[in-house]
Amino acid sequence: MPQIPDFIADQTLNPGHHGDGPEPEDTALDPAPMLHVPAGPDVASGNEEPATAVTRMRQAAALRLAHPRRFRAGQLKGIRRMLEEQADAICAALAADLGKPAVEAMLTEVQPTRSEVDHALLYLTDWMEPESAKVPLAFRPASAKIEARPLGTVLIIGPWNYPIQTLLGPLVAAVAAGNSVVLKPSEKAPAAAELIGRLIPQYLDPRAVAVVQGGAEAVQALLAEKFDHIFYTGGERVGRIVYEAAAKQLTPVTLELGGKSPCVVADGRNWPAIARRIAFGKFTNAGQTCVAPDYVLAVGEESQRQLEKHLPKAIEEFYGRDAQQSPDYGRMVSTEHLQRTVALLEDSLSGGGGGDSASTGEAAEGGASSRSGVEGRPPARLVHGGRADVADRFLEPTVVADVSPDSALMAEEIFGPVLPIVRVDTFEEAVEFITARPHPLAAYLFTDKHRYHRAFEERVTAGGMAFDVALLQVGLPTLPFGGVGASGLGAYHGRAGFETFSQLRPAVTKTDQVDTLRMVYPPYTWAKRQALKRLL
Q: Where is the composition biased (Low complexity) (predicted)?
């Protein structure tokens, strides 16, 4: 049997007794008995069979193992200890999978998750406390409350682009809400997945959290099981598969998908700062960020001119003249993803001529921007970058201008380090451009005109917004994070995550010492009808 960490065992063997204040009502029942954790390497290595993992977690949910507040706090503290003690191992895994610099890994993966843990620990007692609800005069004397109850057993399917933060962030919310959890790391980030599989049983109670490894077959096997909630982060295509499978069992879902997040630049005073903020938002993690600015709408000739002037300067300031040699620039997750991204770039630069994806690395190396359009669409213009090295999974931070709205770059989420600039003449045209397309996960506006802020907030629908900055809205545990429409369903972070993994259950209590409901009992006499007209 894998060793349960002492700090967890001390808290969970008798969850009905605590030294730091009373527990919620549900902990007054007999403590949950110890569950049998299967012997062998599967649990300890975090690589169980789907059916086995789900059965164990459903047993834990049935015995209410994860319900007590102190158990939840112990799990959260275990996540925090893991992030602190294994920070170097986490950074090494992220470097192996995505070429992430250690500072970037800490900034975008470790620290945001740590902030989520600290925020949850700070407010956990408040979140668990029942909330009083008002009772109309006609129903008094009575009391009403809303209480957050654990859903049961939840499945969290993580993506490969931020394989630590986007798996452990939802885990923080799920354990804070008192659920047992099955984690499915992405097989496309194998080093991070293997690390998560090893560390979770060491730092969290393996009776309440299981890890299942594998690819599409493992996901299909998990989706065939019964869960009380499914949380998926990834692309729209697989999101539809998850949604369809969940619908067959009436399982609620949270889908964190993505989309083409627009960045409108209407005017500005500090163009170097604007360029740096856009470049940081776009080229962090080599552009493989679901809320990265996917394209820029430059309002007017001056905005485009300034962007073309300052974006290359910002890129060189960040990564030097040769980004491939920079220790601060990441890599694409796979050669296939690199080739797909370069193919999109080549299609735009050639005016639609495109090229065989097998030759995209060579095409990006040499003069693709000089080709003329072959399908009647004007070719885009290469402003900066474009060089690729398939063997190194490297694609230079790239900026292209004069991009046609119907080019391949504008047809789907790029999810790579290519930033198209689309010229529009007016702010109104920029807003109409965005609203004519599916709702994005994020929308950004850079401008000094406050009336543009108000119009943008009123007319643009997006999962989240940020003004004069990029990515910052995702890093605040006090703000919910989620999509709308095609970019996602549901939200998490902070209290929003706690409520996502909880049932907000209403309850009413009315004394029977005085039966004030006699007025609504049959028979409905004339006197009762007149009285009810006044009361209701």
A: 357-376
Picking from 315, 155, 122, 145, the residue whose alpha carbon sits closest to that of residue 221 is: 155
CA distance 377 to 350: 9
CA dihedral 478, 481, 485, 486 (to 10 degrees): 170
Integer Cα distance of 199 and 82 in angstroms: 7
Structure tokens given for 141: 């004397």
Contact of 186 with 159, CB cutoff 8 Å: yes
Percentage of the chain lying above the pLDDT 70 cut: 87
Q: Provide the b/e sequence for 88-114 (b: ≥16 CB within 10 Å).
A: eebbbbbbebbbbbbebbbebbbebbb
Phi then psi dihedrals of residue 16, to 5 deg: -85, -5
Kindly list the strands in the beta sheet with 418-424, ordered across the sheet, starting from the edge strand earlier in the chain: 381-384, 398-401, 418-424, 295-299, 262-265, 443-446, 465-467
Q: How far is it, in rounded angstroms, from Cα 276 to Cα 268?
A: 13
- DSSP 3-state assignment of 163? coil
Read out DSSP for 510-530? --SSS-GGGGGSSS--HHHHH
CA separation for the pair 186, 176 (Å, rounded): 23
Which residues, in sequence order, are CB contacts of 153 under 8 Å at separation 6+? Answer: 54, 57, 58, 60, 61, 179, 180, 181, 182, 227, 228
* Helix-helix angle 69-85:87-98, to 10 degrees: 70
86: confidence class by pLDDT, cuts 50, 70, 90: very high
Determine what percent of the chain is predicted with pLDDT higher than 90: 79
Looking at residue 263, the DSSP 8-state letter turns out to be E
Query: Which active-site residues does the annotation give?
Result: 256
pTM over 0.90: no
